[in-house]
User: Fold Ribosomal protein S18-alanine N-acetyltransferase from Mycolicibacterium komossense.
Amino acid sequence: MTQGLEPVTIDALTRADADRCAELEAQLFDGDDPWPAQAFLNALRTPHDHYVAAREGTTMIGYAGIARLGRRAPFEYEVHTIGVDPAYQGRGVGKALLDNLLAFAGGGAVFLEVRTDNAPAIGLYERNGFVVVGVRKRYYRVSGADAFTMRRKPEGEQ
Assistant:
C-alpha cells in the first residue's frame, strides 16, 4: 500500500510508540476515555496480545491491537483498538491494520465493540464479515455513548 511518496508498512508496535499512540487516542477518542501511554505499555507486556503499528516512513500513522482469549483451542479473539491518524483516514490504513489482526486470529471467532455512531468503522467491519450481535448501553464511560458488539464467525461456522 502506498500513500503519498512513501509506502505504508505494518510492523510490531514497540514501547517507543506508546506516547504516539496516546497522542492519537486523545485526537480520535476525545470524550471517550482515550488510553494513556501506560495502557499501551501494559498491553505490550501481555503474551497473548498482538499490537501493530502502521507507518509511513518513520512516522507512525496508526495502531491496532487484538487479544487471544481462553487457554485452549479453539480460541476466540477480541479487537482492543484500531486507530488511524485523521490525516490518513479513508486511505486503506485501517483495513490494512484490521487485516493484520484477522491474520493473527487465524480463522478464529473475533469480537469487537464500536460506537453505534461510528459509521466508517462499522462499514469497515461489515465489509470484513462482522455482524452486530448486541448493543452495550453506555459502554463508553465518559460520554455515555452506546456500542455495538460485533462478531466475525470462525472459519467453518455456518
